[in-house]
Design a protein that fits this description.
382 residues; alpha/beta; 6-stranded mixed beta sheet; 14 helices
Length: 382
């Protein structure tokens, strides 16, 4: 007999259910009667060490670096990379293992991801020099992965936006966009001559040969913005690599640090930040405002949860003044894959009243947001 009526198949499914319940319950006296094999027992021990509570999963990771390093190796053996990253994050947050990341051998055992980079940046000032070099290797690996994923599409999308915004109606012959010119003049088609009379020429701009737009990334480096800081640093480096865009990157808490001169290497940018501390958006925007030389060709991108510790009315006044001068202003509550964070709704509403919608943006959407801002068209708000 085969199919759903096969007793043997039913037994296999029943055993699989018991096995899953045994793994969930995590105890030998769980009532399932299921005995785990060697691999399942190893998985169960790794889960118990992290998620155990008194009497059930209580092995614990303790504070021993060798013990934790072995556990990190175990979870990489038993679980896929995405699960490993979640378990690492839980271990750091639930069990307070951040201090162990100051040891190079521990860093060599972890699975690098954006959240781990954020944790390392928060420990930056406490790192001994021997650990700092290992941390840079870990951070660079994550940055290179992000650049490989995000850079090609960002460059292509923004190059197209710059090209469209730079088109001219009086191009030189070599710059004529013949496809668009023909489409624009089809009404002037002369059947007897089988030709189109081009009354209006449309040309490619020369955006790639000179700076056409200026972009200022203004990044909140308070503790809750760690992932946004990582992504913003990568995007800042990508934008800085485009000759048609003059890019400035500013990070802030209660102080303001201009990291523009380090944009050639996003790893240098990241190690120039200091996660944590308060927030003074007004002071950061004052710095950005003072660096604007061509308002009509400038895009300012504020990445912040908008919890302002500075002067609220001055902050809003600066945004209004920049908008009035012709600056395109973009407010992102987060630049990450984590969804909308907690944010100051009153300040978000006040920005919206000024014509600046505040919204969370994923890294994959960011190129489209920037393209819309460069072309001065409505932003693709999710």
């Amino acid at each position: 007999m085969t199919g759903t009526g096969d007793p043997a198949a039913g037994d296999v499914r029943a055993q699989a259910r018991l096995r899953r319940w045994r793994m969930v319950l995590g105890g030998e006296e769980d009532g399932t009667g299921c005995v785990l094999g060697a691999r399942d027992a190893g998985m169960d021990a790794a889960l118990s060490a992290l998620y155990g509570k008194g009497g059930q999963r209580s092995a614990g990771l303790g504070g021993s670096a060798p013990h934790v390093a072995r556990w990190l190796g175990d979870i990489r053996t038993y679980f896929p990379g995405s699960v490993v990253q979640i378990m690492q994050r839980d271990a750091i947050e639930r069990l307070g293992l951040s201090s162990l990341l100051l040891e190079p051998e521990m860093l060599e055992a972890v699975e690098p991801d954006v959240h781990l980079v954020g944790t390392l940046l928060s420990l930056n000032k406490a790192m001994p020099e021997t650990t700092r070099e290992t941390a840079r290797v870990v951070v660079r690996k994550v940055v290179e992965q992000l650049e490989k994923r995000l850079a090609p599409r960002t460059r292509a999308t923004l190059a197209g936006a710059l090209d469209r915004s730079a088109r001219t109606s009086r191009p030189r012959h070599a710059d004529i966009d013949w496809n668009r010119t023909i489409r624009a003049n089809l009404k002037n088609y002369l059947p007897e001559h089988r030709t189109v009379v081009p009354e209006r020429l449309i040309g490619h701009g020369r955006a790639a040969r000179a700076v056409e737009k200026e972009v200022i990334l203004c990044i909140d480096q308070s503790g809750s913005m760690a992932a946004s800081v990582v992504y913003a640093s990568v995007f800042g480096a990508v934008l800085a690599s485009m000759r048609a865009i003059a890019t400035r990157l500013v990070v802030f808490d209660t102080a303001v640090v201009d990291l523009t001169d380090q944009l050639a290497d996003p790893v240098d940018v990241l190690f120039g930040t200091q996660l944590g501390g308060g927030t003074d958006i007004n002071r950061a925007l004052a710095h950005c405002q003072s660096r604007i030389t061509r308002p009509a060709d400038t895009v300012v991108v504020l990445v912040s949860d908008l919890y302002e510790g500075g002067i609220r009315n001055e902050m809003l006044g600066r945004v209004a003044a920049m908008k009035a001068s012709g600056v395109e202003f973009v407010a992102l509550l987060a630049l990450s894959d984590e969804g909308t964070p907690a944010y100051d709704r009153e300040h978000a509403a006040a920005l919206a009243a000024l014509g600046v919608p505040a919204f969370a943006c994923t890294p994959d959407l960011f190129p489209e947001v920037m393209a819309a801002a460069l072309e001065k068209r409505p932003l693709p708000v999710p």
